[in-house]
Fold:
Amino acid sequence: MADQPLTPTGPAAGSRGPGGRAAALVARCSDGLDASASVPLLARMADGTIDDADFGRYLAIEQAFVRTAARLAGYCLWQQSEWSRAERHADAVADLVGPQSRYFERLLATRPVDDATSTDLLRRASVLEGAVTAALDEGGYAGVVTSLAAAETLYLRWCTRAAEREVPRPGDVQRWIDLHVTDGFRSQVAFLHQLVDELPDDVTDAQLDRWFAGMLRAEDAFHASALVEVAA
Structure:
């Protein structure tokens, strides 16, 4: 399945109720999203208590996953035969290999992670790449877009809640939160939800749940890997 271009379906194909498949999927996984949005690393970023070393390690693992995400977006571009959808995937590739890559390079230059720490850190954090790769192997395009929808929906949820709290935070942490509540980011999440809505009916709800929930569990392990107590 992963090697076959997607056969596009109509916007209403595969929908489940008035909100579509994505809305139903998010509703079914809402408790998991809430739990994943409250893990220690994200809670510390939200309340402004994260220290610079933990944030630096987090940036290092995020940079690594952005590189994975760029490859995944390229895969989605190749698989998507509907041109307007393909263009959106191409835009994602351009953003990930351009502005986002430069963003991490700039911030990590001020918070270097030594080689020994980085090797072990990236090994533990690779659980996130492993989850989305497993979804790709099982479900191809459907598995990838559902997994990415899980990750981006999680970030929209926790950053939206964090942004609503007026607490002092380190400037770079505040900017990271702000990046995930912009109109552009909300549009990207909505696009991924649209792609889930359009998946063919032979992609079952059970598969969607497994990929979405699996990505959330991987996000939890990924975020834990940046903390000092896990690294020790």
User: Anything to note?
Assistant: The longest helix spans residues 52-79. The two ends are 41 Å apart (CA to CA).
